[in-house]
UniProtKB/TrEMBL annotation:
<keyword id="KW-0547">Nucleotide-binding</keyword>
<dbReference type="GO" id="GO:0016887">
    <property type="term" value="F:ATP hydrolysis activity"/>
</dbReference>
<dbReference type="GO" id="GO:0005886">
    <property type="term" value="C:plasma membrane"/>
</dbReference>
<dbReference type="Pfam" id="PF00005">
    <property type="entry name" value="ABC_tran"/>
</dbReference>
<feature type="domain" description="ABC transporter">
    <location>
        <begin position="7"/>
        <end position="246"/>
    </location>
</feature>
<protein>
    <submittedName>
        <fullName>Urea ABC transporter, ATP-binding protein UrtD</fullName>
    </submittedName>
</protein>
<keyword id="KW-0813">Transport</keyword>
<dbReference type="InterPro" id="IPR027417">
    <property type="entry name" value="P-loop_NTPase"/>
</dbReference>
<keyword id="KW-0067">ATP-binding</keyword>
<dbReference type="InterPro" id="IPR017781">
    <property type="entry name" value="ABC_transptr_urea_ATP-bd_UrtD"/>
</dbReference>
<dbReference type="GO" id="GO:0005524">
    <property type="term" value="F:ATP binding"/>
</dbReference>
<dbReference type="InterPro" id="IPR051120">
    <property type="entry name" value="ABC_AA/LPS_Transport"/>
</dbReference>
<dbReference type="InterPro" id="IPR003439">
    <property type="entry name" value="ABC_transporter-like_ATP-bd"/>
</dbReference>
Length: 248
């Protein structure tokens, strides 16, 4: 991990008809780090992701990605800067095979009919084969993605997000609906990235957060509350009062 900021969120406020889902929220993500954002329901975690990716526009504040201001950029231009987001629900194309889904992501080609027509380069094939092994889906690569289990679809989509080669991966509850074994393997997959990609993870599952062994940012009512490792988070009285005391 370097200490070079990749993403800077600076005093961002998101106002939904007078309700501040983000309230002067600031934080910095360094290149190569994995950061987990936690906080009680309604803390503003998904709104933070929506705002970074350009789906929600802040009323105040600025967002910089690699020194480029992206606050007012169109969503597709923000993606082109090198940010890729995975939503809570799997977003795979069910009628295409597992391999084809990964090929689309690796080619950063979302008009899948074009991609299928153009064929797949040797480089893409290598990326896809490597990812199939890492997400343990090689044996199902030629099956339609719609036939995968929920956990397998989640993995496929995490694999797709990684395969885009985006510099910043936003993973919104990647373990939603997974059991303990699947959750463990998801943590291993994210950890295996090392500092090759920067990852921002939102999750409620404290055992997953612990397994990731990453720095944690705690949000509450749209504001920054605390940052530290999981032990420091557990010991902080303010965090305990608003979050861990209730749900961990
Ligand atoms: N489009 C919207 N219009 C009005 N209010 C919204 C909108 N989107 C989110 N909110 C409100 O903003 C607050 C923050 O929501 P957000 O989904 O960001 O929280 P969260 O921390 O991700 O919560 P959860 O853990 O439950 O997913 C909530 O009170 C929510 O009801």
């Amino acid at each position: 991990m370097t200490n070079r900021p990749l993403l800077s969120v600076d005093g961002v406020t998101v106002d939904f008809d007078g309700f501040k889902a983000l309230n002067s929220f600031s934080f910095i993500l360094n290149s190569g780090e994995t950061r987990v954002v936690i906080g009680p329901n309604g803390a503003g975690k998904s709104t933070l992701c929506d705002t970074i990716i350009g789906r929600v526009r802040p009323a105040e504040g600025h967002i910089y990605f690699e020194d480029v201001e992206i606050t007012k950029m169109a969503e597709q231009d923000i993606v082109r800067q090198g940010i890729c987001r995975k939503f809570q629900a799997p977003g795979v194309l069910p009628e295409l095979t597992v391999s084809q889904n990964l090929e689309l992501a690796a080619q950063r080609q979302y008009q899948w009919w074009k991609s299928l027509r153009q064929g797949v380069s040797a480089e893409t094939r290598t990326i896809v084969e490597d990812m199939l092994e890492r997400i343990e889906l090689t044996h199902r690569k030629d099956e339609p993605a719609g036939l995968l289990s929920h956990g397998e679809k989640q993995w496929l989509e995490i694999g797709m997000v990684i395969s885009t080669g985006a510099k910043l991966l936003l993973l919104d509850e990647p373990t939603a609906g997974m059991g303990p074994a699947e959750t463990r393997r998801t943590a291993e997959l994210i950890k295996s990235l090392g500092d090759s990609q920067t990852v921002l993870v939102i999750d409620h599952d404290m055992s997953f957060v612990e397994q990731l062994n990453a720095s944690v940012t705690v949000m509450h009512q749209g504001k920054f509350l605390f940052q530290g490792d999981i032990e420091a988070v557990r010991q902080d009285e303010n965090v305990a009062a608003v979050y861990l005391g209730k749900s961990a």
